[in-house]
Structure formats: C-alpha cells, structure tokens
Q: What sequence folds into this?
C-alpha cells in the first residue's frame, strides 16, 4: 500500500511538472536541457540515507535506517524527490484524500513528519560533479526558492548524492544512495 501511494504521488508530481514545462523547451528535440546531466536522467529508488557526523559516526536522525523514496530527473530540467521514513508514519485510516483531511490534527502531524517532498529544476556543474536542485516548492514552506547543492558519484547503476548540512548544532554530511529504477 505504501509503495503504491509513493508511486501514485510521483505520478501526480510528474503530471504537474509536465504541465509546468514551458512549451518552447518541451518540444525542442534537445537530448537534454541540462548540460552534463545525461547520467542523472530518469527515476531512482532510494537505497539508504546516512547522516555522517564530524567524528565519522553514522546516525539516522530523520528517516530511520530503511526509508523508501524516489527521485526523478527529467530531460526538460525538472526534478522531484519524495522520501517516506522508517518506520512508516501512521496517519488517518482510509485511502482517500477526504479521509486524511478529516483525520485529527495529531494524526496529520505524525503522517507529515514521516514524509518529505519537493520539486523544482536542476542544473549540473560537471567540473565539480555537483547537481543543484532549485526548489520551486516543498512540503516545508521555508525551503521554497532554496537551492540544494549535492555532490554526485556513480557506481554501476547506483547514484550517491552527498549534501553538506548544519543541523543539531554541528556540520554533517547527508549521504543518499539511489538505485536506478527499472
């Protein structure tokens, strides 16, 4: 059920992105609108998220040890990401938007705290192996308009993104490993 919900949410976001792509770029026939980003193109399923403290200790403060997620980079320069934490967040019972909306505030907060999503455009700096996510919108309103730079590497059909963050009073590296979706 959770995987189905994640898949359906991804389709909705991609549908919104398809409508938002300017017509002049959508049908241009370009191989990619993001120079140097060919290997990033497509859908990637989340394998792991690790937060690495300055002393090298690996911790799992936000998503747990076995989160699920999907990141998509499309040819027109749009991207989206969604992550569901482990353990899976409980929420209002039922399988409709109306059921969720009618749930208690506490049920909604718990469900939202276990979910993360944003979308926007992306650019690549091949010289530094960096992809930058230019957020158009996010589950967290304070992130709207923010840019997230991630160092990327490939190992076979896996993509690793590393972000530098300052949280919980210290500098961290967040390492996300993604497997190409088939």
A:
């Amino acid at each position: 059920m959770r995987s189905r919900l994640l898949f359906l949410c991804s389709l909705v976001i991609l549908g919104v992105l398809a409508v938002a792509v300017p017509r002049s770029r959508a049908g241009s026939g370009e191989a990619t609108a993001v120079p140097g980003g060919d290997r990033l193109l497509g859908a990637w399923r989340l394998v792991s998220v690790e937060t690495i403290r300055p002393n090298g200790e690996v911790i799992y403060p936000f998503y747990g040890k076995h989160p699920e997620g999907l990141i998509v980079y499309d040819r027109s320069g749009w991207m989206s990401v969604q992550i569901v934490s482990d353990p899976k967040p409980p929420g209002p019972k039922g399988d409709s938007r109306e059921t969720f909306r009618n749930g208690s505030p506490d049920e909604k907060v718990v469900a939202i705290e276990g979910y993360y999503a944003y979308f926007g455009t992306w650019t690549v700096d091949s010289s530094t192996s960096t992809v930058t996510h230019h957020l158009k919108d996010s589950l967290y309103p304070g992130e709207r308009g923010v840019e997230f730079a991630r160092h990327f590497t490939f190992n076979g059909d896996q993509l690793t993104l590393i972000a530098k963050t300052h949280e919980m009073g210290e500098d961290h590296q967040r390492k996300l490993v993604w497997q190409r979706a088939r």
